From TrEMBL, chain B:
GO molecular function: oxidoreductase activity
Top-level taxon: Archaea
Name of the featured protein: 4Fe-4S binding protein
Ranges for domain 4Fe-4S ferredoxin-type: 1-28, 29-57
Length: 402, 57
């Protein structure tokens, strides 16, 4: 580890790894630090990603892919199951990854491109001079070392402490933190190529239960619950245990995963002087689905592209880095986040009757042109009472504006 | 003060993100609480997916 780099990347998840790889490929000296002793572990993810979205970056290696998903089932509170057929499921058709392998390979690629990697090395304080980030104090093996960098990438995941230390408020409101628990289970009777989503206020208030297959008779079985709905005796782990006892009494749990995903709006600004914030740390996980892999890959890569140009021009001020912020907001990602935030705001307020009505009505639709927006429009058309409720929540006007 | 039940905590960092004071830090596989900064508001206790945190008077 040198004492000075062009770029310091804090965090070795997909966002940090792709940023580090991009900067290294452009010939800049890069240090990627990961506070954990291993990349990709412990997993804090349901591991699903849309195929088309993934293909923007990689043709996935076979070893990354635990399962290919062909359809999605949504199960209403009354137990009614709606199937989203392959040709209708759009971006929901995807992969369930092995994040332990995937994350590790991405960091491997960054190393191959020339980036230095340090694990079990935690950024403990940014070096701040004249209102700009100039690297960080890193703690490695109990020894604090100063590493200076012209540009620092905060890719430290949901905790998002680094940007916070730099003066950016990254606090997630309680009601917008989805609190999650997941088991990797085996010996369960599932469709190995279908994801399942269970909704309902007794099943997962303010969230949903997911079953994401990872191969034959094996799946991530997890739950997200709205932070404000989490109570002693009714925490995600309690809901999950009840769900598993009901649905998979003979299943075997081979891993427990806990985690949190923000379902708030993205940070108001994702750059500062000599600082770019990517992935979960920037609060760009999807507020409706909780998915964050694509957003991390997209923002990580973009930070590498925009940051490289800024370094080349010798100006990494907030102003010079703003194209990063503007570009992702104007992109497919930014627009999807904005729209799904509004939909999420309505979703978390729906009672079980609303949810039943929605799932039943959608199953009767012939959705040849399936996408989320079309789906919502059809739901509203089929449910006049619900339409009034959604209208009151401001969703109708939002949809009309598209 | 906030007590961490380490036998329950799976060091996921969910609590870190909601702390209004930035008093929590996930150091690899353990949760560190800065008792000088913590105001004992209990938001972290509420959000924990596993119930690993407890507010003690």
């Amino acid at each position: 580890m040198k004492r000075e780099y062009d770029v310091l990347v804090v965090g070795g998840g997909p966002g940090g790894a792709l940023a580090a790889k991009t900067f290294a490929e452009k010939g800049y000296s890069v240090l990627l630090t990961e506070k954990r002793p291993a990349i990709g572990a412990p997993v804090r993810c349901a591991e699903g990603v849309g195929k088309a979205l993934m293909h923007e970056f990689f043709k996935p290696e076979d070893r990354w892919v635990a399962a290919e998903i062909e359809k999605a089932n949504i199960i209403a509170p009354d137990g009614f199951k709606m199937e989203l057929e392959p040709e209708k499921a759009g971006a929901e058709v995807g992969y369930v990854l092995h994040r332990k392998v995937f994350d590790r390979d991405l960091v491997w690629m960054a190393a191959g491109a020339g980036a230095d990697i340090q694990v079990k090395t935690r950024a403990v304080t940014p070096i701040m001079e004249d209102g700009a980030v100039k690297g960080a104090i890193l703690n490695q093996g109990g020894i604090a070392q100063e590493v200076r960098a012209g540009l620092t990438i905060a890719a430290d995941g949901v905790e998002s402490k680094f940007a916070r230390w730099c003066g950016v408020d990254t606090t997630v409101p309680l009601r917008e933190m989805e609190t999650c628990a997941q088991y990797l289970m085996t010996g369960i009777d599932i469709d190995a190529h279908a994801t399942e989503f269970y909704v309902g206020n007794n099943i997962a208030p303010g969230g949903y239960v997911w079953i994401f297959p990872k191969g034959d008779k094996t799946a991530n079985v997890g739950i997200g619950v709205g932070g404000d709905r989490c109570k002693p005796g009714n925490r995600p782990i309690d809901y999950l245990n009840r769900f598993v006892a009901r649905n998979f009494p003979n299943g075997k749990t081979i891993e427990l995963i806990a985690g949190g995903v923000s379902i708030c709006q993205p940070l108001p600004c994702t750059v500062a002087n000599n600082l770019m914030i990517v992935g979960d740390a920037a609060r760009v996980s999807d507020p409706l689905t909780g998915g964050g892999i694509y957003a991390a890959l997209y923002t990580g890569k973009l930070a590498g592209d925009v940051g490289s140009k800024a370094i080349e021009k010798g100006d990494t001020s907030t102003q010079a880095l703003m194209p990063y912020d503007e570009t992702w907001r104007a992109s497919y990602l930014g627009k999807a986040l904005e729209r799904n935030y509004q939909i999420k705001e309505v979703f978390v307020k729906l009672n079980d009757d609303d949810l039943n009505a929605i799932v039943h009505s959608v199953s009767k639709m012939n959705l040849s042109d399936f996408n989320t927006l079309n789906l919502i429009k059809n739901i509203i058309a089929a449910n006049p009472k619900l339409a009034i409720k959604l209208g009151k929540a401001g969703l109708k006007s939002l949809l009309d504006s598209f | 003060m906030i007590e961490v039940h380490r036998e329950i905590c799976a060091y996921c960092g969910c609590c870190v993100s909601v702390c209004p004071e930035g008093a929590l830090e996930l150091v690899d596989a353990y949760l560190d609480i800065d008792t000088n900064t913590c105001k004992n508001c209990g938001i972290c206790v509420r959000v924990c997916p596993l119930g690993a945190l407890e507010a003690k008077k």
